[in-house]
Structures are given as structure tokens and as C-alpha cells.
Amino acid sequence: MPTMADVARNAGVSVATVSHVLNGTRPVLPHTRQAVLDAVEQLGYTPNGLARSLVTARTRSIGLAVSAISNPYFTEILQGVEAHALEHGYGLLIADPHDDPVHERKVVQLLHERRVDGMIVTPSARPDALVAYLARHAVPTVFLDRLIDAAPDTGASGAPGFDQVCADSAEPTALLVTHLAGLGHRRIGLVAGLPGLSTTRERITGYRHGLAAAGLPHDERLVVHGDSAADGGHRATAALLSLAAPPTALVTANNAMTIGALRALRERGLSVPGDLALCCFDDFDWADLFSPGLTAIAQPGRELGARAVQVLLDRLADPEAPARTVRLPCAFVHRTSCGCPAQPEEGTDS
Questions:
Q1: For the segment 272-330, what is each residue's pLDDT rounded down to a tens digit?
Q2: Crossing angle, helix 255-267 and helix 230-241, to 10 degrees?
Q3: By CB neighbour count within 10 A (0-12 exposed, 13-18 middle, 19+ buried), where does 304 fall?
Q4: CB–CB of 118/63 below 8 Å?
Q5: 128-136 and 101-113 are packed helices; what angle lies between their axes, rounded to 10 degrees?
Q6: Quick one: which of 217, 339, 341, 347 has the fewest CB in 10 Å?
Q7: CA 195 to chain centroid
Q8: Cα dist. 186→212, 233, 258 in Å?
Q9: What is the Cα–Cα distance from 132 to 146, expressed in whole angstroms?
Q10: Model-level pTM?
């Protein structure tokens, strides 16, 4: 069985350099790093992970706690996390908190007890117990997709005590509203997400900003929570359609609720965009296969996952650095569910 010394001889470097490359303990020149990796591949060298973790106090593993893993958006995030972690020599331990605060706290503790080097978490709508646990144990953590307002012991500024990575939500939602208003709609409904989530708050804010920009009044009856799920989207859309003056256009605030909204419209024999125009937050692979194709906001799921890993690695390298929040732009994907004529699909930064 090849040893680290064999790898060093093959690559023409010292054993210490091989160790730095494999453990990420010191920067190494790119060509040197590649020579070491080539030697590892050629010789079939397998590092002793247990021994390495005892020496470095690192397990080269990341805990990932993401709800609704079956959701295509979160699946893209997972792919981005996995690819970037693997590229840097990290494995993943994955758990689904199911958007339940009690279960969320349990699975994060289980991941922590398995000595992951850090965590990437999509927090629930009530993350107080989660945040308290992570703060108490000083677990290097990146909150992904959903932001928290503040963490315990963050000082007078109230700045978050954890790094955070998310996509823009408010401005893209406002763009959907102003687009529909520009097509002549005056009663635009919103199927909003689960109360308490930062994404829900921001998309409601964007909806209101869009109405204001279009000179339209805000009618609270036109905002119904679909709880970020297909069934909830169905119920919320049904409620909006039952109003004495129902909306003529609808914005759905995530892909699961879009499916529920379409189901509710179909049950009532209503067509899109003939009877009701539709724009949605979240694009997905088959959105252009619907008839009509869905006008949507596309979030950079894979890039979000990759960026979260990089932010966590930066935190592990510099534990005392100030916490930061990274926001990535979305894209407006213009199709025909909004009522516009068919045109070649295009993406425009929002």
C-alpha cells in the first residue's frame, strides 16, 4: 500500500508539502498541488482519514441541513454544495430538518456530534433554538437561502453572528409585479411563502414595492400564504379566486406553490394567461414545457451552494473575521404565462 512518502517521491516534493496539499493546512503553488494530486491518483494513495483528523483536529467533513431536499431548487443547491466541497477535499453529512424547529435542533446536534468541521443550514421559520445551540458551541456555520435577523451575543450593532448566503428576493419580486402591471393588470395577487421565513418577508416587501412603483394600491386580501408547499399554494389560490373581486394576475413565491396554483386553476377550468396571468418565483428545468411556458425568476441554486461552501471554508481559515452576508442576483426568464407573445427564451439580470 503506497504511503505519503511514496507520493512525495513521485511528485518530487517533501512529505510536508504532500500533507499541506491533502489537509489544506497551508497554501501550495498550483503546479505543485497538481503534481501531488497526480501522484496520489497514479499511486492509488488513500489518506488515513482517522489519523489525519487526530493530527489536524479536522474531519474534512461539512454538515448540511437542508429542508425539502426533493424540491428542485434545493436539489440544485445540494449539487453546488457537493461539487465545491468535493473539489476542496470535503465530504458531506446531510440531514433534512423538515422545516420543524424541534427536529432542526436535533439533527444539527447530531451532525455536530459527528465532529463536522462546520455546517451549512437553511434555517426554519423559528430558528431560535438552532441559533442558540450553534452560538453556544461556536460551530462555524453558514446560513443558506434563508437569513436570520441576529444571533445571541453579536454586540450592539445587532449584526448577524453567522455568515449568510442567499439570493436577492425583493427586487426580483417587484419586477414580476411591475411586469404584470405593465400589461394592464390592476388586481395582482400574491401566493406568499411560509410566515417567518426571510424569503417570505422579502418577497412580500418586493410585491408591495412593485405595486407602489406601478401606482397600484395594496389590498391585503390579495396576499395569501401558501406556506411554501404545493398543497398550500392550491389552498391560497383557491382563496384568491373565491374573492368577490378576484385577481386578474398572480405571482407565486416559489416553485412548489406554483404547482399548487396551477392545479387550483385547472380544477376551475381557468386558463393561463387567458383567464389569469401568472408569474412565479423559481424557475425549474421543465418550466418551459408547460403550456404556456412559465415566466419566472431563476435563482442561481448551484452557485448559491458553491458560494456557501467557499464562505464556510473562509470562516474555517479565519475564525475571527467579521461575519458577512453574501447576496447573489437572480434572472428574469420571460416566457408566455404572463400574457406576452411567444418569443425566444432569454435571461436578463434582475
A1: 999 999 999 999 776 676 778 999 999 999 999 999 999 999 999 999 999 999 999 99
A2: 50
A3: buried
A4: yes
A5: 20
A6: 341
A7: 17
A8: 12, 22, 21
A9: 17
A10: 0.79
